[in-house]
Amino acid sequence: MNYKHIFAQAIDRLHSEGRYRVFIDILRNKGAFPNARCFHGHNGPKPITVWCSNDYLAMGQHPKVVAAMEEALHDVGAGSGGTRNIGGNTHYHVDLEAELAGLHGKEAALLFTSGYVSNEAALSTLAKLLPGCIVFSDELNHASMIAGIRNSGCEKRVFRHNDVDHLRELLAAEDPDAPKLIAFESVYSMDGDVAPIAEICDLADEFNALTYLDEVHAVGMYGAHGGGISERDDVAHRLTIIEGTLGKAFGVMGGYIAADQMIIDVIRSYAPGFIFTTSLSPVLVAGVLASVRHLKQSNEEREGQQAAAATLKRLMAESGLPVMPSVTHIVPLMVGDPVKAKRISDILLAEYGAYVQPINYPTVPRGTERLRFTPGPAHTVEMMEELVQALVEIWDRLELEFKKAA
């Protein structure tokens, strides 16, 4: 068996399909986001503007967050000391879980090392503990949710994206007494659309199902206190579990779930992804705590981000660029070809100092490859105008189709 040859073939397939991923070597400039330095493809750092960060509100650069992390570092040191059970249950963790539970109006919350881990651990554990559980999953759910459902070993039913009629059909076809769990997201980050949360909750009530809502692209971003779409739409109290990340709008790292005390205790006690993992560094947790507390009180960042997203969508549309419809902060620009998407990204970085990564299969379906822009409160109108001018020039150069005015 020639193992090396098999691995080489696997990489060659990615190259031939135009979807081999290249990680760009950058450093962000503290306090000056979206400005950064790029070390990719040239000698020494080159100034660039970042357009694809999930640090949506630039909270990873916020003075309160940086100061809280520095204070914690000098107070308790770098690491947590182990798993939560053994040595890593710092007071920072306890405070942050209480803050997150309050954010969503739940009794308790549980921290994980990432949003991926929180989804995988919570979904696999919860469904596995319910005998004969059937999980109903939106077809565009994140890979971490799919992994958690698969690892639960339960029956799975996939409903068409945001299609409550199809979900109803699937629920009605099952044994009324079988345990049921509906898993879905609030904001789907590749298209920027939003789930009909209240309607799904109505079905959950009717068919006696639990609900699991992934709010990773919405926490910090929506609602009066940053509780997400579920807070904005006043439906958080109807959801069984709300899951979120600490690495996007909150600007640091980690994931969590919020639910009633019993569910949190069950997952805390049974999930291997929680039990056997060293807990987040208290330095990181202190930064998140400062970020969550700030965004509970401040709408300035959210309003600035929404304004920037609306402006960039308008400028792209007016220039005939194929910007996809989006009701959220996500600004997807359709390309439809992985090689061309990578080429546009390369030209933007090399010639214009604009950094945006191409989004290819399996993140999105084949034929829907795109560039995904996430303008934030610190992106100026001038930056956006320069970006759109660059994109128009590249579209002309590569003889790509413009979108005809309606």
UniProtKB/TrEMBL annotation:
InterPro entries: 4pyrrol_synth_NH2levulA_synth (IPR010961), Aminotrans_II_pyridoxalP_BS (IPR001917), Aminotransferase_I/II_large (IPR004839), AON_synthase_class-II (IPR050087), PyrdxlP-dep_Trfase (IPR015424), PyrdxlP-dep_Trfase_major (IPR015421), PyrdxlP-dep_Trfase_small (IPR015422). GO terms for molecular function: 5-aminolevulinate synthase activity; pyridoxal phosphate binding. Gene3D superfamilies: Aspartate Aminotransferase, domain 1, Type I PLP-dependent aspartate aminotransferase-like (Major domain). Signal peptide: none annotated. Its EC number is 2.3.1.37. Keywords: Acyltransferase, Heme biosynthesis, Pyridoxal phosphate, Transferase. It catalyses: succinyl-CoA + glycine + H(+) = 5-aminolevulinate + CO2 + CoA. Its cofactor is pyridoxal 5'-phosphate. Residues 48-391 form the Aminotransferase class I/classII large domain. One of its GO terms (biological process) is protoporphyrinogen IX biosynthetic process. Pathway: Porphyrin-containing compound metabolism; protoporphyrin-IX biosynthesis; 5-aminolevulinate from glycine: step 1/1. It comes from the Bacteria. Homodimer. Belongs to the class-II pyridoxal-phosphate-dependent aminotransferase family. PANTHER family: 2-AMINO-3-KETOBUTYRATE COENZYME A LIGASE, MITOCHONDRIAL, CLASS II AMINOTRANSFERASE/8-AMINO-7-OXONONANOATE SYNTHASE. This is 5-aminolevulinate synthase.
